[in-house]
Specification:
This protein is an alpha+beta fold. The chain is 37% helix and 21% strand. The chain contains eleven helices and 13 strands.
Length: 301
């Protein structure tokens, strides 16, 4: 049977989520008969080059910098290794939220108003006069993301700490509505997942992984017409950006049913709580069949 190396862990702030994703992927692959090795490139991926080059397929589940930003994909391409997921250029585009939104805006994709700000620009921006979102333009898992609904009570210390860590960030208007996500496997959109954070919180890093957020598939609060449009939009973005094998696009469905795109993840989470595996399972593709399909797609290249 084919040998698959799962890359998980790494050095980004999303390391722990990546390790959980890697364990879930490895277990599912083993259940399908693959010979699986997990490598954590926390030190130096180059030290594992010989082993990686001997593998039939590499399955990256490295989230954040060093996994989704294109550097890993460029290295694997240079080594002539087949791997699951999008190539370098697409990975870089979707990881950089500013470049991504500039690209999609040219294609008429509905997006929130926003601007890149440093700490000084942030306090001068008109966008903070109304509910807003402040987040890194090159990260994931909602790390250092601030969702501010009450502009009279802005958490100064937390925001200043985020600017100390990131220097410049993406400031956007907060779109009211239901948060949804649409996974694309191959070229086909999966069922829409509705995300309902706890009543006292937001869909932030803590609430993504503490089990308190409801994820409804099929949704209860999203019109059927909006679900259809969301799936078509996710497939279109998948094609426009050149995504390969899998992607997951997050959106807001407004009260009137219209949609606003937030971002596209090229290596979304694969834990037992992650959104893409849940949507795939709802579409008749449980985790073992999902990872088997993704590996087979890579083997075709």
């Amino acid at each position: 049977m084919e040998q698959v190396i799962v890359l998980a862990g790494g050095v980004s702030g999303e390391r722990q989520v990546s390790l959980r994703s890697g364990a879930a992927v490895a277990d599912a692959l083993k259940s399908k008969g693959y010979v699986v090795t997990i490598i954590d490139p926390v030190d130096n991926l180059g030290a594992h080059r010989a082993e990686i080059e001997r593998a039939d397929v590499v399955f990256p589940v490295l989230h954040g910098s060093g996994g989704e930003d294109g550097d890993l994909q460029a290295l694997l391409d240079a080594w002539g290794v087949r791997y699951v997921g999008s190539a370098e250029d697409t990975s870089r585009l979707c990881f950089d939220k500013v470049a991504y939104k500039t690209f999609l805006r040219r294609h008429g994709i509905p997006l929130a108003k926003g601007e890149v700000v440093n700490q000084h620009d942030f306090w001068q921006s008109k966008l903070i006069m109304k509910p807003f979102v402040l987040k890194p333009f090159d990260g994931g898992s909602s790390l250092d993301t601030h969702i501010i609904r009450d502009v009279k009570n802005v958490p100064l210390a937390a925001i200043n700490a985020s600017f100390a860590a990131h220097n410049v960030m993406l400031l956007e208007e907060l779109i009211d509505g239901v948060e949804i996500t649409v996974a694309v496997i191959g070229a086909q959109a999966m069922p829409v997942v509705e995300i309902i954070p706890p009543a006292s919180g937001e869909f932030d890093y803590e609430n993504k992984y503490n089990g308190k957020t409801q994820e409804l598939c099929p949704p209860k609060n999203v019109p059927a017409a909006s679900q259809k449009t969301a799936r078509e939009l996710a497939e279109r973005i998948h094609r426009l950006c050149g995504c390969r094998d899998l992607s997951r696009t997050d959106m807001i469905c407004r009260v009137d049913g219209s949609l606003v795109v937030l971002e596209t993840n090229t290596l979304p989470g694969m834990t037992d709580q992650s959104l893409l595996p849940k949507a795939a399972a709802q579409n008749g593709l449980p985790m073992p069949e999902l990872v088997d399909y993704l590996v087979k797609q890579a083997l075709l290249r």
